[in-house]
Automatic annotation (TrEMBL):
It is an enzyme of class 3 (hydrolase). Pfam families: PAE. It comes from Rhododendron griersonianum. Residues 1-23 form the signal peptide. Hydrolyzes acetyl esters in homogalacturonan regions of pectin. In type I primary cell wall, galacturonic acid residues of pectin can be acetylated at the O-2 and O-3 positions. Decreasing the degree of acetylation of pectin gels in vitro alters their physical properties. This is Pectin acetylesterase.
Length: 312
């Protein structure tokens, strides 16, 4: 992810794996280990301490915070890790935040659903707090063999009623924005058509190139899209403090790469302004929660549309 120097907010990446952030000027953002996490029993799966990368804001943006999940914080001691990191950040300025956005991609987007209200509870009551999930709206859906294959991966770890966003979303009180593809490729390949449900590989060509899908396969994908929109319907109709941008690209995690998301042919719905996740927090807020822009859902995918979306 590129972080430009003009961005004026404190940016946090929550992670267990040591990696770095570079801008076009090769700015290195150091990793901060949470040294006292062991007192809470907060360890990553490999036994290492949790960590985060902090790039502070400045000037008028010094009290604006963007926290981005780079790991799901779902497994085993994830709640302890989350608590340890937040308690480490609160005295470093997060506790005095004026504006804060909790976001994440894929499993990190799922974690945004699960931690959104808890995050809000740590911050001042007069702070503007919002959450964003990019490609984290995982459906509780049967695969093409009518089995709940994806559900079985997690049922021994977490309550399914808490894990899947479609069940948690009605109870989230903090303003929330959902960015997702109706044909999310990860869900297409792992929830709808996992390898165990297609042992003869009839879907291989379709997975590699949606334009190669048969009419029957396209119809199945359209039903998946229909189910996703159905799961979002109550949020779409009744949410007054959130929004969504659901496009028809075969993509997963669309906002993290500026090279694709801010390109001339990046995804749009009804030719609306693109989401600029890495722009100033004020610009994010204007787009996410303007009354006229808050909910957008794309039309159905057609094979002729494949060139209208970037691969992400």
């Amino acid at each position: 992810m590129k972080v430009h120097k003009i961005v004026s907010f404190s940016m946090i990446l929550l992670t267990c794996a040591p990696w770095c952030i570079f801008s076009e000027e090769r700015l290195l953002v150091n990793m901060n280990l949470v040294r006292n996490a062991s007192a809470l029993g907060a360890y990553c799966l490999d036994g290492s301490l949790p960590a985060y990368h902090l790039h502070r804001g400045f000037g008028a943006g010094a009290r604006n915070w963007l926290l981005q999940f780079e790991t799901s914080l779902l497994y085993f001691r994830g709640q302890r890790i989350w608590k340890a990191i937040i308690h480490d950040l609160l005295p470093k300025g997060l506790g005095n935040a004026k504006k804060a956005l909790l976001s994440g991609c894929s499993a990190g987007g799922l974690a945004s659903f699960l931690h959104c209200d808890n995050f809000s509870s740590y911050l001042p009551t007069n702070a503007s707090v919002k959450c964003l999930s990019d490609a984290g709206f995982f459906l509780d859906e049967r695969d093409i063999s009518l089995k709940h294959t994806f559900r079985s991966f997690y049922e021994d770890l977490v309550s399914l009623q808490c894990f899947f966003p479609q069940y948690a979303l009605p109870f989230i009180r903090t303003p929330f924005f959902i960015l997702n593809s109706a044909y999310d490729v990860y869900q297409f390949h792992n929830i709808l058509v996992p390898t165990s449900a297609d042992i003869h590989g009839h879907w291989n060509r379709c997975k590699l190139n949606p334009a190669a899908c048969t009419t029957i396969q396209i119809n199945i994908l359209q039903e998946f899209r229909k189910d996703m929109l159905s799961a979002l319907r109550l949020f779409y109709v009744y949410s007054r403090r959130g929004g969504m941008f659901i496009n028809s690209c075969f993509a997963h995690c669309q906002s993290e790469s500026q090279d694709t998301w801010l390109a001339a042919n990046s995804p749009r719905v009804h030719n609306k302004v693109k989401l600029k996740i890495n722009a100033k927090l004020e610009n994010i807020e204007k787009y996410f929660f303007q009354e006229s822009l808050k909910n957008e859902a794309d039309t159905k995918y057609l094979p002729s549309d494949i060139d209208n979306c970037l691969s992400t």
